[in-house]
Amino acid sequence: MIGYRFMGKAHSNAWRQAPRFFPLKAEVEMHTICGRDAAAVEKARAQFGWNNAATDWRAVVNNPEIDIIDITTPNDSHAEIAIAAAQAGKHVLCEKPLAMTVASGEEMVAAAKKAKIVNMICHNYRRIPAMAQAKKMIEEGVLGTIYHFRARYAQDWPASPDFPLVWRLQKGVSGSGAHGDINAHIIDLARYLVGEFSEVSGLLQTFIKERPLPEDSGKGAGLGGKSGKRMGKVTVDDASLFIGKFKNGAIANLEATRFAPGRKNHITLEINGSLGSMTFDFEDMNRLKFYDATAPADRVGFRDILVTQPGGIHPYFGAWWPQGHIIGYEHTFTHTVADFVDACVNGKSVQPTWADGLMNQRVLAAVEDSARTRQWVKV
Description:
By secondary structure, the protein is an alpha/beta fold. It is built from ten helices and 16 strands.
């Protein structure tokens, strides 16, 4: 694994837990965790359960004992590491967003195709059981013709003007702000549940233009840190909104913001179709609400589905607990790792691939183009 902070912690837990709960087709050895700070990565190694610690990602990528590379670094290094890993014949799991630009994403997809490696982008919210259940029901046609997709992803961690200028607020490292960081997630869910976008009209806004530089050296922790006295320019968006059209005729309304006080990691979505509706709230992630418009008039209303039935009834839950015993955020990464490991053994593609990540990147870029030109942009 390259990277060891927030996502490194989440992925490490997944690598440790997946073989304990899922009947994987291969054993998992947590060989090496890698980062630039030798002392910090050694601490992470001991805490997260890795066998070795390293500071040179190139040596890790080229180690013949390693079959899989997991990339959890800041966005500006995804493409370089991923392409090198593909060229070394490693299967690669990469955190989102896939790359900084569409061009870099295209290079990654081309490298994976040439090397014939299993490649996956970590959009873990696809593997919330309720989202996988929603996908199953939509494919069964319970919503009929889909008309609307609405989603909001809201946080508040950098809302204070005293919050430091960490790497997620620097375009040269992150590529974009709330847009690429969290809007990418609900774009992926829109594509997963409804279909591909055809065109978009977007708005990006930066509310706080300057911030104190972080006291620590390097890129900063990403979601926190201590503020210094010197100031720096914020070069990313704080909020991103867009409306869009899907190729199948449905329309979309998506909002991502880091300036919603009280919202810590708030994801909500609603899908409306000719035969019914679905709603989901990540703060109640084990539930999916479904409205059947074909039900008798005297008993219509939103049905509350607790998506915790094992025995093959609800996705992924057979690996966990008896019915009604809910799971959490960390389990979505375990589901991702379990699916990825089996795909590597089978030598088969597993969704979402880097090609999916590239499609997300195209939507992100189109929204940025629209915000700049104030016009509709085709994806």
